[in-house]
């Protein structure tokens, strides 16, 4: 009992013994209403929605990162250039700098390449190479030509330009003294003085001028070979020629030659412009010792000899001229026969065409007349620097034949041949000269040239001339190691390659058998290119076998119709 409790009064109790305060606590109301709770949830969802919108907006404004892709593409550009004969020291690249567009929708690395293109390659060829490789990577390439020696390419990934490539052709013409005209004048003076001294043209061989250059000057060098008759001693010719060559800067020196004669050298401004090698002769005419192409000149120069007599005695028969296939096993250089994809070439509906190139034209004579009497759908390849080169080419074209330049290469001991060690300029000069001997030529094939056609760099130097003149090229395939056809195709030049040699052996049975083989190849492949030569047996078999093509449903076509 408490102090306040009155005596006899008891404290109130609830059922079960719990105090009355517990009932009061249980009876208190909920701290917030259902409305307040609902508003809280609405606020929470609104905040979440705002976060989503803000995040999406941030992501939409964030630029696309293209830096890794542009880095990889820039590395590809450098690899393409290096793998295609451009030295590393000729390729300069500024490190990629971070770049973005105006709206900052993308960010990438921008590269600038400066490339010096060697003279053995063309600007257009390098540009085509870059375009092809970049297009495969879905990169667009634009180009502008600042001048004939400079081009600038732009590389675009989508609409974003990530690189520029400035191509500059290396000049093969350094800025130094040009004394070519003076050198040519001295060479002409030598020729005129020899004529004045009574040396018959038949005894003078003048080579084409060859361009020379060093750090100081550019000039030409011309070589003369002079056979001195007994009536004109060498020492007198040397003395009179030395006296005749004048000029403030011209100097003439003479020295013994290895063949027992004398070599005279004329220099201009210290540069050797002319070399004249004199050899003695007993005065007897020995036409068999002269190159075949000089024999007609000999007959005309020596009045007492009849031209036809000299040609019949001294000019080699076509059968004696070494073929470009000499020493080559045809099995080693023949191509595998392939059927066209998707259909058999034996299908009568498939067009069949064959081109036959007749090589080594230009010597004239009865064989030439026999060939020119055949079907003009043949293609005739004419050797330059031969007695009847121009005449054969002009007559053939008028009759409807197609004419090629049969370009001497490498081992061919032939005037005007080109070789692997020659510079691009030397090859261009000799090729230009050869084309001048064969008017109307629409394409070129090689005479010999096993070493030359196997040398890709040499072929590039030669094919640049062919490409500049919009000619096509036919690979005679004188070696299994030839790179000629593939190189021509890589440079964008129309080209073809030989399938069959018809007269590798000069016998009627062999040539007829090769014609049958040619027909078999056409039936399998649909098309074929064959090569034969200006030879009597070949002309005879051609006359026999050409009608068989029509019987077999095979069209005889000019080779230009088969180049690709």
Q: What does this protein structure show overall?
A:
With 564 residues, this protein is α/β, with parallel strands linked by helices. It has 3 domains: 65-169, Beta Polymerase, domain 2 (2-Layer Sandwich), CATH 3.30.460; 177-281, Beta Polymerase, domain 2 (2-Layer Sandwich); 322-561, Glycoside hydrolase/deacetylase (TIM Barrel, Alpha-Beta Barrel). It is 36% helix and 25% strand. The strands form 3 sheets. Strands 14, 15, 16, 17, 18, 19, 20, 21 and 22 form a 9-stranded parallel sheet that branches. Strands 7, 8, 9, 10, 11, 12 and 13 form a 7-stranded mixed sheet that branches. Strands 1, 2, 3, 4, 5 and 6 form a 6-stranded mixed sheet that branches. A hairpin with a 3-residue loop joins strand 9 (210-213) and strand 10. Helix 7 (295-301) packs antiparallel against helix 8 (307-314). The longest helix has 28 residues, at 34-61. The protein is flat and about 140 Å long. The termini are far apart. Residues 1-9 and 282-316 have low confidence and may be disordered.
Count of discrete domains: 3
Give the count of helical stretches: 17
The chain-level mean pLDDT equals 79
Helix content class: 25-40%
Report low-confidence residues grouped into runs of 5 or more: 1-9, 282-316
Class by SSE composition: alpha/beta
| CATH class assignment of the largest domain | Alpha Beta
Total beta strands: 22
Biggest sheet overview: 9 strands, parallel
CATH superfamily of the largest domain, called what? Glycoside hydrolase/deacetylase
CATH architecture of the largest domain: Alpha-Beta Barrel
Please give the alpha-carbon distance between the first and last residues: 127 Å
Percent in strands: 15-25%
Structural shape:
flat
Rg (C-alpha, Å): 42 Å
CATH topology of the largest domain: TIM Barrel
